[in-house]
Amino acid sequence: MNHNHEPSEEEKDNWSQDPDNWIWGLFYYNPKDKRIFPPKRIKEMGWTVNFANPNSVFLCVIMILILMILCESVKR
């Protein structure tokens, strides 16, 4: 049995729809899903962050820091 298989699109869609992968219905957390930005439950609403992926959390922290720096530079 191959444990390193790439999940199918159907399996990825099922992950996004599974309520057990959502904390308080707002935060997507699925360690099996390696995507940084998986689609939201309603795909037309865009993407969300997979908080189980350390790369996505790191990327979000970097984006927040950049926004904070930009806001501070605009105030001056």
TrEMBL record:
Keywords: Membrane, Transmembrane, Transmembrane helix
Superkingdom of the source species: Bacteria
Domain DUF5808: 31-54
TM region positions: 51-71
Protein name in the entry: DUF5808 domain-containing protein
